[in-house]
C-alpha cells in the first residue's frame, strides 16, 4: 500500500490504473480505522480493482462545540490496518490541501440534510457534502463505499451525486455491530466502562421497536414511545432525537406505509451515538 498526500500524486496513480482498465473504488474515512472500515474496504475490493481509502478529519463537518480536536487521529495504526485490509492507496491530504486559502464554496443538499442529525448538528451535512464532492473530484473514482450507520449521510451523498449528474456508483454497507448490538464506531472509544455498558440500550431499543413493527405496528408514535421506554430505563442516556421517517425523503411520517427508517441519536455521558434500522415489509 502506498501513502499519498498530494492531489497530483493520487490523480496520477488513479489515471494509470484506469488506463490499465482498472475500476477505481473510493472509501472516504476520517481514520481511527476499525472493523467496520475493514468491512468497507472488503466491499470495495468486490466492487472494483483499485481501492483508494482517504483519511481526512474534515473540520467543515464539525460544529464549534463538537469533538474536532478530540477526534482520534492514529495514522500509524491506520496505515497498518488499511494495508492489511487490501487498500492500494491511502490518500491523506492536509487541511491546507483540502481547504486552500480563500476557500469559499460549499455544497448545500436541501431538505435531506435538515431533519434528524441536521437539526442538532446545523451545517454538518453541508460540510460532509462539500468534502465528499471535493474527494470525488480529487480521486475521480468509478464507485464509492459508505457505511449505513450514517444512513442520512448516505442519503445526502446519493442526492448530491444524482443532482449534480455525477457518474459514480454508490454502495452502502450494512451496519457492523458489537456482540451486544452496539454499532461499531470510532466514537465508541470515548465511552468509559460504565457508559459502554449503558450504550447497549441504543440497539436494544431499536430491536424492541423492530419487533413491534414485525408484529404489525405501523404507528410512528407507538414505535417511538417503545424506543423511549427502553432509553429511559438507562438513567445516563439522553435522547437527542428518535424519528420514524420515509427512508428516501427522510421526512417524518405518522404511519408507515412503505420503506421507513427508524433513526436515533442518544448522548451517553459526553458521547453522541447514532443508530438506525430500516423497517419494511
Ligand atoms: O463518514 C465519515 O467518516 C465522514 O463523514 C466522511 C464521509 C469521510 C466525510 O468526511
Describe the structure in brief:
The protein is α/β, with parallel strands linked by helices. It has helices spanning 7-19, 35-47, 75-84, 95-98, 117-120, 124-139, 151-163, 193-199, 201-214, 220-233, and strands at 2-4, 24-29, 50-55, 89-91, 143-147, 169-173, 237-246, 260-268, 271-279.
Mind telling me the CATH superfamily name of the largest domain? HUPs
- Quantity of strands, as a count: 9
CATH architecture of the largest domain: 3-Layer(aba) Sandwich
Form type? globular
Q: What separation lies between the terminal Cα atoms? A: 43 Å
State the name of the first-level CATH class of the largest domain. Alpha Beta
Note the beta-strand portion. 15-25%
* Low-confidence runs of at least 5 consecutive residues: none
Number of domains: 2
- The gyration radius over C-alpha positions equals 19 Å
Structural class: alpha/beta
Q: Give me the strand/helix succession.
A: EHEHEHEHHHEHEHHHEEE
Helical fraction: 25-40%
The tally of helices reads 10
Amino acid at each position: 500500500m502506498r501513502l499519498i498526500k498530494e492531489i497530483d500524486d493520487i490523480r496520477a496513480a488513479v489515471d494509470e490504473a484506469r488506463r490499465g482498465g482498472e475500476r477505481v473504488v473510493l472509501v472516504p474515512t476520517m481514520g481511527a480505522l476499525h472493523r467496520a472500515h475493514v468491512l468497507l474496504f472488503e466491499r470495495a475490493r468486490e466492487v472494483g480493482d483499485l481501492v483508494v481509502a482517504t483519511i481526512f478529519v474534515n473540520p467543515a463537518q464539525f460544529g464549534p462545540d463538537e469533538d474536532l480536536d478530540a477526534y482520534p487521529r492514529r495514522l500509524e495504526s491506520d496505515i497498518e490496518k488499511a494495508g492489511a485490509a487490501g487498500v492500494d492507496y491511502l490518500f491523506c491530504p492536509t487541511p491546507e490541501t483540502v481547504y486552500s486559502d480563500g476557500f469559499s464554496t460549499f455544497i448545500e443538499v436541501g431538505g435531506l440534510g435538515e431533519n434528524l442529525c441536521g437539526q442538532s448538528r446545523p451545517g454538518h451535512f453541508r460540510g460532509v457534502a462539500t468534502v465528499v464532492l471535493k474527494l470525488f473530484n480529487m480521486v475521480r473514482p468509478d464507485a464509492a463505499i459508505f457505511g449505513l450507520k450514517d444512513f442520512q449521510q448516505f442519503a445526502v451523498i446519493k442526492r448530491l451525486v444524482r443532482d449534480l449528474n455525477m457518474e459514480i456508483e454508490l454502495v452502502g454497507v450494512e451496519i457492523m455491530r458489537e456482540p451486544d448490538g452496539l454499532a461499531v464506531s470510532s466514537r465508541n472509544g470515548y465511552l468509559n466502562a460504565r457508559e459502554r455498558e449503558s450504550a447497549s440500550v441504543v440497539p436494544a431499543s431499536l430491536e424492541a421497536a423492530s419487533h413491534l413493527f414485525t408484529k404489525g405496528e405501523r404507528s410512528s408514535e407507538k414505535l417511538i414511545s417503545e424506543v423511549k421506554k427502553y432509553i429511559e430505563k438507562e438513567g445516563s442516556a439522553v435522547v437527542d432525537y428518535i424519528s420514524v421517517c420515509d427512508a428516501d425523503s427522510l421526512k417524518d411520517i405518522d404511519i408507515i406505509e412503505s420503506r421507513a427508517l427508524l433513526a436515533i441519536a442518544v448522548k451517553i455521558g459526553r458521547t453522541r451515538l447514532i443508530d438506525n434500522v430500516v423497517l419494511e415489509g
